[in-house]
Design brief:
25% strand, binds S-adenosylmethionine, globular, Rossmann fold
């Protein structure tokens, strides 16, 4: 099923995980189980779900220049990161999103606007950070509205937890920003940063603010603001 055609860019999806796109790029799909592998295609990095041979695919250089790299984890449909990539063309931007359809939406936005400073990664955030990023290669980190998993017995699925901050500490050398509408998750984020020797909180207690002029707008930021929800912005910095 061909979902989108634009000039010489062809984006074909037969199952969520079976993709072909790009000029003269052929990938035989569906992957056989044994052939499943991460692929790099035209500013899109794809790691098949349940793939576990990460050591066989070392990190690659994502951009041809050496400009600082900023990452947005959980980029959703890409509204926030595409705006940032346009606004700050001297920086490199990487959007990480584990849902293929949303990663594709972000990539399509970037391609339509001719953004050469934006890469999209379809992979789970912790896996990508652990296995596919070079040490001290990331300048700034943004996590905008990660899934809050509000039920207590689901909270174990939240992204901002000690293993993620540890993985980030290996690859990052600058600041990080977390944004959530969920007050318990905001407090958990603060606790997790306080418990880390690698990171420090930059804002005074309660360590978040409810507004951050100029931070940028995302689909969920607009949605929650429209519904009158209170947002929480947390800023952290790497202890070096
Ligand atoms: C509530 S949405 C926010 C999307 C976007 N940041 C925004 O503000 O509009 C959360 C997004 O994070 C993605 N996500 C959740 N957990 C993830 C993980 N561990 N790794 C990568 N993406 C994840 C979800 O698929 C979803 O698109």
């Amino acid at each position: 099923m061909c979902l989108q055609k634009k000039k010489d860019i062809k984006f074909t999806l037969s199952r969520q995980e079976d993709i072909i796109f790009g000029v003269n790029q052929t990938l035989h799909i569906p992957f056989s189980w044994a052939d499943r592998r991460p692929i790099w295609l035209d500013k899109f990095f794809y790691v098949p779900k349940a793939y576990d041979r990460h050591a066989e695919s070392p990190p690659q250089k994502m951009f041809t220049n050496d400009a600082p790299i900023c990452i947005e984890y959980c980029c959703g449909n890409g509204q926030w990161i595409v705006d940032k990539a346009k606004q700050f063309p001297h920086l490199n931007w990487v959007g990480v999103e584990h849902q293929f359809v949303r990663a594709k939406q972000t990539w399509v936005k970037g391609q339509k606007q001719g953004l050469t400073n934006l890469c999209v990664v379809c992979c789970e955030a912790l896996l990508f950070t652990r296995h596919y990023l070079h040490e001290k290669s990331v300048s700034e980190i943004f996590v905008n509205f990660p899934d809050p998993w509000p039920k207590r017995h689901h909270a174990k699925h939240r992204l901002i937890q000690p293993p993620f901050l540890e993985a980030l500490a290996r690859v990052a050398y600058g600041k990080g920003y977390f944004v959530t509408d969920d007050a318990p998750y905001a407090n958990q984020m603060v606790r997790v940063v306080k418990g880390s020797t690698d990171w420090k909180l930059l804002l005074e207690a309660p360590h978040y603010v409810h507004e951050w002029p100029g931070y940028g707008s995302s689909f969920f930021e607009s949605l929650w603001k429209q519904k009158g929800k209170t947002l929480h912005y947390i800023a952290i910095e790497r202890n070096l």
